[in-house]
Every structure is written in structure tokens, then in C-alpha cells.
Fold each of these.
Amino acid sequence: MVKLDQVTKYYGSFQALNGLNLQIDKGELFGFVGPNGAGKTTSMKIMAGLLACDGGTLWIDGEQVTPGSGSWREKIGYMPDFFGVYDNLKVMEYMEFYASIYGRENDRRYLYELLDRVGLAERGEVYVDHLSRGMKQRLCLARTLIHDPLILILDEPASGMEPRARYELKEILRQLSIDGKTILVSSHILPDLSEMCTSIGIIEKGKMVVKGTVEEILSTFSEANPLLMTFTGGQEAGMRILKEDPRTRNIASRGSNVSVLFNGGEEEEADLLAKLIAGGARISAYRRAEGSLEALFLKLTDKGDENANA
Amino acid sequence: MRNYRFRVNPVYKKELKQSARTSRTAIILLVYNGLMLLFGLFAFYVTFEGDRQLSVSYTDILSVYSIMTGIELGLILLITPMLTAGTIAGEREKQTLDILLTTRLTPEKLISGKLQSALSTILMLVFSSLPVLALVFSVGGVTFRDLAQFIVLIFITSIYIGSMGMFFSVLCRRTTEATIWSYVALAIVLFGTTAVVGVTGILKCMNAEQGDGYYGVFSLYTYYNIGIGPVCLLLLINPLLTFAAMVKDQVGGAAMLMGCLEQESRLGNYIVENWLLFSLTLQTIIAAVLLGASARMLRPTGGGRKQRLRRLTSGMR
Ligand SMILES: Nc1ncnc2c1ncn2[C@@H]1O[C@H](COP(=O)(O)OP(=O)(O)OP(=O)(O)O)[C@@H](O)[C@H]1O
Ligand SMILES: [Mg+2]
């Protein structure tokens, strides 16, 4: 549905995108993650037709496209990361304005349905600049739906939302995905993404580092997860052994619970446990942490940084 | 089935709705008409009280007409950059522009909607001041045709100056920046052109041989024939000269100025006699070019001002 092939983008001499590849299939809910400045907004703007790329190609719905040409933008609903609303306009009028661009301003029932979808049906007569930030974001989402686009490109739609609003947004996006929309959503809130997305891409320094379904990614990179152990005795000796082992990093303890990043497979894990016990430690629990996208994200985007906080 | 009925520009419609809810338009209206009335009374006073005669002479009325319309033009010239410079830059500042540019709305539609809303404010000002102008008609001497011609002139002038405001509004990031540049452009058009012609005249004078009977710079202020030459054509883009030409055509005012122009430009009297037509046509063309350029710079390629300018200059496709 959306495909970026070797896309590059320069801001002056600064390279924001460095041969970015991305493919999103029809009906996918694709989560786009990356540290600040990785190039998420830049690539989303390119997909929305707001920016021209300096190299590479872009396909939308099977067609190769160039910014500023053709009607492919009709297929896209774009929600920017930062946006404003107009003064002196009510919620319904705000919707009517964008609808009038598509000649649908008189279809009030339709606009009401869209507002209802994002939970703003009761607010039609409120001035848009009196809405809270989260409501504005939901309003903007309703706005992107006006022309019934095939693809939604949402740049951090949940930023600044409280947990409940985020939960509701997740539900809305899930429903839209079920309704057949292809959705690309960027976020810094990884648990949200891992819960709702069908697949995820991690971008760093303008390049895609990894992509796939959440399960795929987690199982490939399970070594990124810390080892968790609980001591019932000999903790000091155990800690010394852990510190001396060259394969460990970031040892953290809270009471008798210790977590440590360990570079090794199952055999090495067993070796380590044997070593600990031989060294006098008594251990009541010992296991790899459950796959956490957070840990993986930190590992992938923070290469070489020994102080990374797992 | 597509509906081919005439549709109001969505941007224009939205702006109308918004401005109806602010007091901005009302304040502009009040200040504008207040000034018109003030100047109008002043013009009457100066013209009629000055000579302390009870009889009203025909030429006095005509000079009141010239003064009043001149003031109206001056006010419109001052207001237009303010009404247009913030249009696109304001959307950019409010972070609403990107959304608009990803919709079906074309940059041309956006530009024309914004221009329409500025023009409708200006037309409202012009029509609201008609009662004040009617003071002149109450005494007679000016036809309705003259007045219609004046309104056309105001209309074209505001498109012309407005297109400069729009251009800078697209080019600049901030409204203040765009406003400053629009007024700079206005000053260049009004005074820069005049200065170029004047300086050319001065240089010609200074270079004139003594035997010609001129005495340096001072001869400029006498109506001697210096022969400034075709550089006078620059004045075609100056709305003040356009207005002077209209006043001369209508009531015979500014005759000396236009006569001087005819003599100095050495262009033959065809151009000067049809100055009004030529300058309005040229100004319309300039406006069309500037508006086209504005739309082109808005095409979704993003980037800063440099990229917008590059977009304008590279490959006119
Ligand atoms: N208009 C611009 N001019 C110059 N550099 C820019 C511009 N926009 C973005 N950049 C740079 O390009 C890089 C990528 O920015 P981008 O906004 O795409 O990152 P992002 O992944 O969206 O980050 P965030 O998570 O903070 O939203 C950054 O280093 C940024 O400084
Ligand atoms: Mg961003």
C-alpha cells in the first residue's frame, strides 16, 4: 500500500533520511518508532506529499508518485505532529470547512458520525480553541477521515494524552484498522504500539533498523532482555561474580532482586547460573525477562553506549 | 454526478465566518470612515473657507473630489499590505498550513480564497465610504461614470498591492516579516520609482552643458524640458501616477504633472494620454505573475524560504 525505496532527504547538508526502506501492506496497522530526530516526521511528511525527497522512490497504492503531482494525496489522511486550530470556529464548523474542500459540507450527518467516532459528538458547538489538547488531537483525527482516505498517516497522535485518552485512541485506531484502513502511526510510547500494531519498524538516523511483527522482533532479539534473579543468600558473592563476568552489563539490584543485561544464549545462561551457585550464591528465581519492546528499542538505538538504562 | 454549480471558495467562506466573529473588521471600518470624514471636512474647509467667498466655484468642487478620492486611495494603499501579508504566513504560524496542503485544496484555490477575503474587506471599506464621497456629488460636477472608474481603479490597485502582500506572505516565515517586506515593496513602488526618475533628471541636469542655459540641479524645479527619457516608464507601476492620470482624465486635475511627464518622458503623447489604461494593464499583469509565483511556491515541496525560492526559479514546469 505504501512503499518507500531507498529514500534520502537532506536539510541543507544534514542528511535526515539515509536510504530509508519501508513497506506497509494493505490493512496493516504499522507502528513507527525511533528516537528523537531519527527521521519519523520527515518520512511521514514525504508520504503525505508535503516534502519532496532527494532520492529514492515512493509508491502509494501500487503507483509510483512524486510530490505535488496527481491525485494520490486523496488516498492519504495526514495528521501532523504539531498542528493548530482556527480561532473563532466551532467544532462542527471546523469539520464543515475541511468537508467543504471536498464538497461535503452539507452532509452534517456524516460529519456528526465522524465526530461521534472520536467521542466529540457532544462538542459540536464548542469553539475549537477552547478544546483541550487531547480533544484537539481527536478532532484532527476525525478531520483526516473526512475524505475517507485509504491510508492514515498519524504523527504521534497520542502525544500529550493521559492514559485513558490514549487507551480510547488505541481503540479508535484498532476499529479503523478493522474497517480496512491502512494506518501508519508514530509514537514514543512503546507499550501502546506493541499492543495495537500488527507490525513495527524501528528507525534510527534515517535508516530502518528492524521491522516485522512485534513477536518476530522480540524473539529475534530476546537477548536484549535482562536476566532477572532473586537471591535468598550469598548475594554479595553473586554480585561480585556478575560484575567480573565480561558478558554482563547494567547490573541493577533492588533488595534481593537483581536484573542484569547478559550477552549470551541459553547455554551461557546456564553456565552463569552454575558459576553463581558454585560461588556460594543461593538463588530462588532465575529467568529472562519477558520480551519488552522498550529494552529492544534502547538496545537497537543506543549502540555502543555503555550507560544505557535497561 | 459532479455538481457544476458555482461554488464559493471554501477558504473565503471560512474567513468570512471567522471575521464576522471578531471586532477587527468593525474597527478597521470605523477608523477608515472616521479618517475619511475627517479629511473630507478638512478638504471642504480648506477649499471653501480659504477664500471666504459665498459662491462655490466649479474647480473647487473638483479639487475636493480629487482630494477625497486621493485620500481614499492612500488609505487603501496603507491597509492592503496589512490585510494580505498575514494570510499565508499566519496559517504557517498557527500550524494550520500543512494540513491544508495535504487536502484536495490546490495552492491556487488557497491563494485566491485569501485574496478574495482581503478584497471583500477593501470593497466593503470603499462602499461604506460612498456616503462621504457623495458629499461631492451633492454639489455636482462629477459623474457616476467617474465614480465607477475610481472604484475599478481602487479594485485593481488593491489586487496589485495585495499580490505583493500575498507573495511575501508565502515567502516569509512570520507575519511580521512578511508585513515589513510588503510595506518596503509598497514604498519602492510609490517612492522608489519616483526617486529613480528624479535622480535621472538631476543627473541629466548636472551633465547638461552650461550653454543650454540650465543651472545645475535647480533647473529640475522649473518646467524646462530636461528630457529624462524612457526611464519614466517605470512610473507605470506607481499607483499614485495611475491615480493622477485618472484625475486628469476625469476632472482635469494634475494636468501639470501629467504634462510634465509627457514632456520629460520623450515617449510621444500616446502612452501618456492612455496612461491610465497602460498602467492598470501592467499592474494587473504584475499581480497575476506574483499570484502565480505565490501558488507555485506553495506547491508541496516543503523546506524553507530558500527552497521556496528555488522552486520558483527552477524548471518552470
Ligand atoms: N526543516 C528542517 N530543517 C533542518 N533540519 C531539520 C528540519 N526538519 C527536521 N530536521 C532534522 O532532521 C532530523 C529528523 O527530524 P524528524 O523531525 O524527522 O525526526 P523525528 O523522528 O520525527 O523526531 P521526533 O521523535 O523528535 O519527532 C532531525 O535531526 C532534525 O533536526
Ligand atoms: Mg517527529
Amino acid sequence: MGGARSVAFADLGCKLNQFETESIATQLQEKGYRIIEFDAPADAYVVNTCTVTNRADRKSRNLFNRARRATQAAQAAAELSAEPAAGTPLVVLTGCFVNSHRDELESDGRTYIIANEQKHSIPALVDAHFRGEVVHPAGNVFDFPVAKRIFHTRTTVKVQDGCDNFCSFCIIPSVRGRAVSRSSRDVVAAVAEAVTAGAREIVLTGVNMSRYRDGGVDFTGLVEACLELPGQSSGHPGERDYRLRISSLEPDGLADRFIRLFEHPRMAPHLHLCLQSGSQRMLLAMRRQYTYEEYRRLAADLRSIDPTFNITTDLLVGFPSEEDDDFAASLAAIDEIGFGHVHTFPYSPREGTRAERMRGQVPSRVKTERSAAVRTAADAAKRRYRESLLGSRERLLVERAERRDGTLVLTGLGEHYVPISVRLPARVGEHARASADPPPRYENTFLEARIESLGEGDDPVLHGSPG
Amino acid sequence: MARTTRVTKALPRVHEIRNLTESTYVLRFDRRDLEFEPGQYVSVGVKGDIDMREYSIYSPVDADFLEILVKEIDGGHVSRRLRRVRPGDEVEVDGPFGFFTIDEPDRRRPLLFIATGTGISPFHCFAGSYSDLDFRLLHGVRTAGERYDHDAFPSDRLTTCLSRDPQGVAAAAHVARAEPVADGRAAVGSADSSAVAGRVTDYLREHPVDPGTRCYLCGNCDMIYEAFDILKGHGVAPEHLYAEVYF
Ligand SMILES: Cc1cc2nc3c(=O)[nH]c(=O)nc-3n(C[C@H](O)[C@H](O)[C@H](O)COP(=O)(O)OP(=O)(O)OC[C@H]3O[C@@H](n4cnc5c(N)ncnc54)[C@H](O)[C@@H]3O)c2cc1C
Ligand code: SF4
């Protein structure tokens, strides 16, 4: 069953959530479900939420309500039943918002509330719902098969879940639980499976991967193993080759030899290294596990391997007792490190965290002003960073090939995690025009591009030509 | 769909509460099978209370019980409630957590421990767990009465910085001179041989530290921030500074 059923997904928050959504979607697709846009009428809606800030809570609630409204009419008949009736449209709410709001959320006839620990069972649960059966979730937080390319060209592999760092502002340890590492054998097997299935870019993801440990294997050892897969070890960029990207990383607990990983031709020269503040006083109050100097040195070491290494980050503004000079240190860090992108968020107290109980909470007005100042500085830094790539060559992984004004335009991300658009020469464009659709062979292939110009806007695209 | 329910299991029971001062006490309870590394902390709360707080483990690694050193905070929720538990009561304990531990190679190097107030707790655990550590401990307290269990440390390794107790400095020096014991340690109940007036940061400014020293700092954020700066000024590399921030 399930052939004609449709499922729509919405997710918020981190790369790990994105991966888990993709993996669930892949499994449902393999069971015969159609994956459709969230705005379209669907038989099931899966909302994978986040709770990292007040804003994330609000968005989670909004998506949940939208999904509920969309299913309301069709579910009217099932409203009085205690358990979801077979076949009625349903909403599955899962993710960190669920874990942090357990007391106010309850499953009813049209909604399943699924905590993070059971998220992996959603495909079985949805399928059972439409079969009129009940499943009893089994398995663990790593039971997410490799995702097919439904939403992105990149393929994500989950290596770790949970966190024991307990930064004083962060709710993640209480909603994702204690740090657990997936066995290195399973991770390497998942990467190998993805490569065999044709993935060109594999992203390793987790909540706090720098603390990864499986017996004697630390995170650096794990990445080394993923770079040297049997039968793929030539390291020469070729059509059948792949590149490896590390998603978000905490800049602590990393081995000295971590930096050397980026000398490998398969390693993407990009890291999202969470800084949170440029002020040492704030880093201590946040109970972060590194000093600003150590961060700066890590950045310098990465740039000694690739001068255009892309370092992106998170900055938290308005943490309790943040003074003007602490904030100025964060602004200065944007220029000093030369971030390629800064994700900034105003501090919002999360229930049960240490920072919630701290004195010196910063007024909202100040937080708003500081966020705006960070955004301005970050936009300028991003433009400067992308300008530094002008004249260089990037290896574009093509995500989309579409005809514009009679020529074929390929778009995707370069190895530095920057958006690139390449217009193919007219000759190739002519060839494309002859067929009804863009030649499919461009998607999910690498293309060497010479970067020639930079577009406008706050996320400017690099334009280039093949070669 | 059923909501996730909490698995109920028997909780550790309190053995004793030992008062060190009017506001500071050592709480001892069942260790059960909790394995930890010296320097780690546990989350502790009174039974049935959803609020738990972090406390460094005070007792040595081979003790068959766990101890924490707690200062009751004015208006504090958990530190006050824990004070009122009685022997035999159950407490919620979770953990261990934390990375404020000493790597094997560093246990053979000169170490500087810097604490304020109850921040002495992990150092108490280090000293009781590793027999041959080459350490110096600077303990910043307001008054001489806050020298928690100083007799657990060899007196020649300990300096107390008394920030608000000039008389205490003289008294401490007097007691230490008057009651030495044969092995060179101060007598139980006596004070350390070296007590100075001022804050730990004042002391650090005046006493350069060998740049190769691994420095461990525990206590309040402002002290640690200031001390980091001073120690870096003495040439200690940032990666050799380790901090456990309590508040
Ligand atoms: C890793 C770690 C280890 C810790 N180890 C110890 C330990 O070994 N012994 C110990 O006594 N405490 C320790 N603490 C502090 C402890 O976790 C609690 O914060 C403290 O007991 C106060 O909790 P409370 O519920 O009584 O106060 P709360 O109700 O949480 O706070 C009341 C008010 O007091 C302020 N406050 C919190 N802590 C302090 C403090 N220490 N001094 C002054 N004001 C404060 C808060 O900002 C708040 O405004 C540790 C903290 C951390 C993060
Ligand atoms: S390292 Fe800190 S910010 Fe990152 S998930 Fe863990 S507790 Fe949260």
C-alpha cells in the first residue's frame, strides 16, 4: 500500500535535522510515497522542529499549525477518535521542539508527537498508519539510512548525536541527550555506500563531532578513514571521485593532526567553526571550551593550507552581561578571522539552562541593535571573502542545469561552499536547445570553473566559465 | 501514541552532611557504579525536583562514595534544598560530565591550580586521586573560615589568598608555625603555612609562573578571565590554560 500517498516535509535548524528529514523522505519514497512540497495538499506532513532560539520555537509552532490546518477538514471525521484512524491524513511533529515541550504536546487522532529518540521510526510509523497497523519503535538514533538526493545534491552521513559540553546558553544537551558516537565501521560503510550510489559530495554531520570517539578512533581518525575508501584511493579528482565536507564543528577537543586532513585533495576547504563570541570573558561565561587565541590560531593554520579556506561561523549576541567592549570584540573577530559567512542570533533564554539564571540579561533593544550591526559587518566580510576567489578556479558540483536566454546555466556549490553559476558557451547551449530538457548529465557532476565576477545582494553568487 | 515516560530506578542515598562553615557543606552519598575521571562533575538535585545543578566531584576517584562541596547561595534554589536533606534521603544524580581533567602526560608536569571558593573541589579530588602530582594550589577566599579542608593538601603546596580578612593572614601564619606535624604537613584543623592578603589575581601578578606550567582554574568567571590575562602575560600558552567556570 501507500502507492499514491503523498508526504510533505518541513524542517528547521541544523544540518543534522536536515539529514534526518532527508533520510526519512528517502525511506518513504522507497516505500512508494510521493514526496511533495509543503504547501501542497498532502496525506501526511512531517515537521522536523528546532528549539535552539525563541524564533525557532515560534517557527516550529507555525509550521505545526500550518500542517494541522491543512489536514483539518479531512480529519474532521476522525476528530473524536483516541487513536489515529487508518488512512486519515496525519501530522508528524518531531525534533528538538518536541523534546523541550513534551508537557504541552500530546498525540491525538490526527497528530503523532515523536521525540528525537524515536525519530528514526517515522517511516515505519507513517506506513503503519496508512495500513491501519500499529508499530512499536525499535532501533537507535543512528538508524537513518543514507539519504537519496531528494532535496540536495549533497549526501549527508550522520556520525554522532547528542552533546556533553553543556555550554551555559544551550538547550541541545537536554533535547538531543548525551553524546553518542556511531561506530567508525558503520560511518565508513555509509560513506562507501553513498559513493557507490553516485554521491559526489558527502557531508559528515553530528551535534558535536569534535568529541567523536569510537574506541581508539577520534574524529580526525574517522575522517581519515572516510578519505581513503578501498578502490577510491587514487585521490585524483576524476569523474567517479567524491569530496568530503565536514558540517558544523566545535573548535575544541580536536587532535593536532586535524589540520593536516585539509591537505587531502578530497577534503573540501571549508569549516563551519562555531565561535559564538570574540570576547574571552563571554566565551568563559558561555562555558565554551577554547580561548579566542586558540580559535584564531586554528583559523590561521587552516589558511596556511589554503589561503582562501572558507571559515564560517555562529555568533551569539546579547549574552547575559555582554558589555559594549565584549560586543566590539565579536565585531572585530568578523574582520580579523575574515569569515565567509556568519550566522548570528540574538541570545534568548532557554528554559533550564545556566544562562537563563544569570544576572545581567541584556535588553531586547540592545540585542536587536547588536544583531543588525553583526549582519552589516558579516555581509561585508562575506563579499570580501567571495571577492578573494575572483580569478581562481573552483570545482563546482552542479545541482541544477537550466536554460536561461537560450544558453545553459549550471549552478551549485564550489569546494569552498560558495554559490557558483556558470553559463556554458553558446556552442554547448545550442546543443542543449536542440533537446526539450537540459541534458541531465550535468547534474551531480563536477565542473572546473574559472571565477570571473561576483553578483549583487547579501548572498552574492560567483559567476564563472568552464575551464 | 504514548508519551515518553521516565524510567524509575532507585536513587543514591545520602550518607552524611558535613558542615564546613555556616554556608558550606560536604554532601556524601552512594556512588553506585558511577565511573568518573578526577575533575569531572555530576548534576545533583533533591528527589522529585526537576531542577538539578552541576557540582564537581570532591571525593577521590577510589572512594566508594561520592562527595560534593556545596556553598549555599542566598536565594539559590538547589544549593539551599540540598542543605536540608538528611542521611538516608534519596538524591537525583546524573553524570559524570566535563572535560576539566588532567591528561596522563600532564600529570608528570608542574601544575598550577587556581581556585576561588568552592572551586577548590576538583583540586581536592585531584590531590586525593593522584599521589605524585607536582602541583601548587592558590585558593582565593574571603575569610580564613573558608579554607575548606585545607589539611587535605600538603601545606607547602598551598597558598591561601584572603581578600577580606587581614587579621586572618596573621592568625593563619601563627597557627601554621605553632602546630607543624612530623611529616611537614599542617596539623589537622590547622591552617596552611602560607596565607597572604589580597585576591589570587593580585598574588599571580606579583609571582611569575614558569611558562611551561599547565594551569587549571576553577571558580567564578571574572577571576578566571583576569587570571588568564595575567598568565598569558607570564608566557603561558593559551592551550595550557584549562578552566572550569562555576558562574
Ligand atoms: C561545572 C560546574 C561545577 C560546579 N561545581 C560546584 C561545586 O563544586 N560547588 C558549588 O557550590 N557550586 C558548584 N557549581 C555551581 C552550582 O552548579 C550552582 O550554580 C550553585 O550551587 C547555585 O545553584 P542554586 O540552585 O542554589 O542557585 P540558583 O537558583 O541557580 O541561582 C540563584 C542566583 O545565584 C547566582 N549564582 C549561582 N551560582 C552562584 C555562585 N556560586 N555564587 C554566587 N552566585 C551564584 C545565579 O546567577 C542566580 O542569580 C558548579 C557549576 C558548574 C557549571
Ligand atoms: S557544544 Fe555547546 S553549543 Fe554546541 S551543541 Fe554542545 S552545548 Fe550546544
